[in-house]
Design brief:
Transcription Regulator spoIIAA, 3 helices, globular, MlaB-like_STAS, STAS_dom_sf, Anti-sigma factor antagonist, anti-sigma factor antagonist activity, Anti-sigma_ant
Length: about 110
């Protein structure tokens, strides 16, 4: 984790799944509780996530809101964007650059 300007940025790599959820949750909660402003979660190095990993992100989103902060997702890959659209979470989560729903390939 590194700090840039007036907000924290976390880069998540590998898999965010049931095996890594507890560790990810701890790191996210600490960053949210100890910082101010937006918390940018860079997912450009994330290979995949499962329902548990997505739940960790949603929990962090809710916690950030309770702390007067905002969780912002950056570098969301197309396959992850499709999941966010399918679950309609793209309407709730702040995603840097947004998601062009019409430009996503159909599966």
């Amino acid at each position: 984790m590194h700090i840039r300007g007036d907000h924290a940025e976390l880069v998540v790599g590998g898999r965010l799944d049931v095996r890594s959820a507890a560790d990810a949750r701890t790191v996210l909660h600490t960053a949210i509780d100890d910082g101010v402003g937006d918390l940018v979660l860079d997912l450009s190095e994330l290979d995949s996530w499962d329902a548990t990993g997505l739940g960790v992100i949603m929990g962090a989103h809710r916690r950030a809101g309770r702390c007067g902060r905002r969780l912002v997702l950056r570098g969301v890959k197309p396959q992850m964007q499709r999941l966010l659209v399918a679950t309609r979470l793209h309407r709730i989560l702040a995603i840097e650059g947004g998601i062009g729903v019409e430009s996503l390939p159909r599966v």
